[in-house]
Amino acid sequence: MVKVRAARAAEAEALTGLVMRSKAHWGYDAAFLAACVPDLRIRPDEVTARRIVVAEDRQGTVLGLASLEGAGPLATLGLLFVEPSAIGQGVGRLLYQDALRRAVEQGVRRLVIDSDPHAAGFYRAMGAIAAPAGPIAAVSTADTADATDATDAADVADVADVADAPDAAAVLDGRLVRFEAAPAPLADWARAWTGGGRAVHVGNVAEFNAQFGDSSLDREQAAAHHYSCLAAFYSPCPSALVLPRAVPAGWTDLVCRQLGWTGVEVYDGLVERGPGLVDAVRARPALARRLTGAGEPLVPWGLTRPFALLTGRPWRPGELRHESKAAAHGLFERILAEGGHPQIVLPAQARAATRWAAARLLAARARAGKSTVLKSEHGVGGSGTTVVTAGQVRAAGGARSVLRRLPRGALLVEEFVEGPPDPDAARDLTYDGFVDAEGGVHEVGAALMDVTAGAYRGATVGPGAVPDWAEKPVLAFGAAVGRELAASGYRGWFDVDFVADAAGRLAPTETNLRLTGPSVAFMVAARLDALRGAGHLVRIADRVELGARLPEAQLDELCADLARACADLGAVFVPAIPTGAFDPAPWLGVLVAAHSPEVLDAAETLVRSGAAAVGAMFDAPASAAP
Description:
By secondary structure, the protein is α+β, with helices and mostly antiparallel strands.
């Protein structure tokens, strides 16, 4: 295990030697290295002033060093060097992340890095942003951090794979490549969510859905068990994951590396079928004591009676009444009746007591040439929601024929909101927040969702993800919903979904009293901002189709390759749902993150194309046939 500690003045000469060995690793000639010595020498009286720290192994061997120089709000990463023999062990990554952490503590909001050209790939992969160069120094007094650490994912990369090919002239004259990072503390809402510490994550997705009789899920709740993998991201820093289905060990290792987590315990394979995850935990007293006795908060996907019994929390099923789409519609009506939300409109909704009543309402709307939204009382990810046009009603032979194709159960018949004329305009948005134990409402943010044919496919969160015209009304109305939920007794995470109409107004469509895909993206954004610098855009994509079913080893290899390729772009790849890779029609849920929309889009394209191409490895050339 490698740890970071403050350097000692007596180590100055030895640390200078490490710096010069690290610099020489890149093949500079003796004359150039000799010219570097005056600027790279560490003197005993500088060790404290330059805030130099070292990384050392269990035996006390120093493997690298870093300095944080200057005072907030502006500072410089003056040194970051790794012993050549330690390249590929994550030492550079550890030192860089420690520097960002210390910068936050010292009030630094802008960290300048003048990098050796060979190390540019490392800083790009660590989330630093290329910046206009300042005055040119004759030699690098910045780092030659080993580029392997840039994508330490699965330790599969070597220096040549990750480091940019440096410009020859830049290498010869010692020109530097300037980067900047924005050190950031963990977001206030994230600290309030779990107290700023580690938490136990319980993936009880199937258990939550089952209490509403969601007809979109099969008897084995297979879809829900896949989505339970999102338990890895229920807070910015887990201590334990509790999962119904067994997950690949390589997936857990990669996620922890990408998000800088250590010591995460995984309890998986507890329930292969059915919704009884928490009951399975309660049936194992030692496990139940471990999860509840450490003083860490337990975070579920959503509140259930078994979870209340496990944690000793009072079970109040009435808290969840606004999970109903009809109850949520009534809540929206009450808020809008009080005024103050001029950009929010509410589509008309009627509850059809019988299928005959639903058919009459649908037929009347079709005769008027109007499209209609048919909703089940509950449902997830767009399940149980169908948009029907007047033309589809006619083509089907009438409203009754349409309804025969839908799941049984009560239906809500709702006015369809026509979207913006521009197909690329923002259409589906969401607000995320939570109500704490004292009833305080915390705003997390707004996100842009990807909804295709009524089905949720993913979401993007972060700076600029939601257009300016929509963000303020979404945040204001979402906060109002939070206050109503708090007053009704609800405690926990919630979201409010919206659709935009042709006039640039927003129509709220439902509340979800649980964690969701967008909430997971917010958690990852908060973690990456604290780990790599502020300003991350994070996109969660629920289903990235794979070109073939993959054994675990090949899945691990694919994910490591994608992590490395995204790091080359300055992006982060995190596999979110690995278990779908073993389905007959295989897929992955993924998270990608970057500091710019362009890099984010490029990373998603890279991941989708790489995932689709995996089938090619199984296609032998025709000429190879016997």
